[in-house]
Amino acid sequence: MKRHQLYAIIINSALLLSLSPTWCIVSQQKSPIEIKIVSLPESELSKSLAGMVKFIQDGIKITWFKWTEIPDEEKRLAQGSTKDKANAVLSAAFRGAHLAMAPLVCAIAIQGTKIGLKVIKRDILTPKPAILIKKQKPFYGRIDRLRRWWSGIKTQIMIFNTEINDRLIEIEKKTTSLRDLIKNGKDRTYANLLLHSKPGAGKTLFAQILAQKTNMNFLPITAASLLQAGVEGIKYFDEIISMANNSTYGTIIFIDEADALFTDRSRINPDSEHYKVLSHILSIIDGRSDKFMIIAATNHAFIIDPAMGRRFQDRICISLPDSTTRTKLLEYYLSRIFFDEKQTNAPCVIAAKALFTPQLITELTEKTAGLSPSEIADMIETMRNKAELNNRSLIMNDIQSAIDEAIEKQRENIKIIDKSQQ
């Protein structure tokens, strides 16, 4: 029986119990309700409890049954004019409301206590698995949502290419719809998602924004950490799944660097801990869940185990930022790193605003082709570091040398990736 049904029964029963005697008088019929307090027979077994029983009986009679006794004034009104009879019925209804108050408050208090204890146990007393990545800001349950609200944490800025934005909106709508259908008791399950791209393209950001926009829990882990834990990784993953299954919000389990764990099993020793952990995870996410969705991120989608690959119903390749997106990224990171006086001293802000003209931003957009969002952010940060380390405001040489370093770093990364794929 649901809570609101229980409360409705309590209220309706109390009102009927109070109204029936008065209504019978109004209708000139004998009341069918006769209330008695039955005393327990005194015996050797009950002697020690007799005083307590009488105390409880008197308490019930005073606080409960006195409201079912029809006052003399109400009896007089019930036998009077039509208006008096209506007033008698209203008086009886008022008594019924009082009659319902005590059990209703008790029922609400009991249910509230149960919910409170459940929240305390799940969100406070039960420690979160140590394997969660703290820097990726995991959140779970009401307590974490309250902390985020109190700290003023807002949904992160979303700067992707247009087609990636469109896919994010599509996945968000789909996931929100599935969550609502599941809450309403429909037989639905979440679709798992595989994100793949070059390093730093925004896979983690994509998963974080999706969790925030759908108001689902976000539990980030790395495949490498599961492997480093050895067979303990099985226990850690089971704890994450247990958290997801006990949540009413729905949960996104984000597995970063998935290629480290989800390697093709034909290349792994069946007796190794890696094989055992992978097989265990495969068995858990065999099929879809109505409690959680798995989002895996990888830089090397082509080496993922085929059996694991089939567990992901949706796949998105997050492309590197195009020209329009790079301009937006440059403007965003400049405003956050250089033009914010809380983070940068005033003389440096003035110098930066003078240097970063629209023409320079256009040049930077062209020079940064092929850089990922994280590489663009690092480049702007490097510019500020060069100025601060020399204890002066930003100069054009800082900007140019930071660009050259970013491009050279990109070339080295490409060489490393090419060697790893050979």
Describe the secondary-structure layout.
Blueprint: H1 3-26, H2 47-63, H3 72-78, H4 82-125, H5 141-151, H6 162-183, E1 193-196, H7 203-214, E2 217-222, H8 223-228, H9 232-245, E3 251-256, H10 273-284, E4 292-298, H11 306-309, E5 314-317, H12 323-337, H13 346-355, H14 358-367, H15 373-389, H16 396-421
Parallel strand pairs: 1-4, 1-5, 2-3, 3-4
Query: Into which percentage range does the β-strand content fall?
Result: 5-15%
SSE string, helices as H and strands as E: HHHHHHEHEHHEHEHEHHHHH
Mean pLDDT: 78
| Reported CATH architecture of the largest domain | 3-Layer(aba) Sandwich
* CATH H-tier superfamily of the largest domain: P-loop containing nucleotide triphosphate hydrolases
Provide the number of structural domains: 3
CATH topology of the largest domain, what is it called? Rossmann fold
Question: What does this 3D model show about the protein?
Answer:
With 422 residues, the chain is an alpha/beta fold. The chain has three domains: 3-123, no CATH class; 134-317, 3-Layer(aba) Sandwich (Rossmann fold), CATH 3.40.50; 323-421, Orthogonal Bundle (Helicase, Ruva Protein, domain 3), CATH 1.10.8. It is 59% helix and 6% strand. It has helices at 3-26, 47-63, 72-78, 82-125, 141-151, 162-183, 203-214, 223-228, 232-245, 273-284, 306-309, 323-337, 346-355, 358-367, 373-389, 396-421, and strands at 193-196, 217-222, 251-256, 292-298, 314-317. A five-stranded parallel beta sheet has the order 2-3-4-1-5. Helix 10 (273-284) links the parallel strand 3 and strand 4 (292-298). Helix 1 packs antiparallel against helix 4, helix 4 (82-125) packs across helix 5 (141-151) and helix 12 crosses helix 14. The longest helix is centred in the N-terminal third of the chain and has 44 residues, at 82-125. It is extended. The two termini are 63 Å apart.
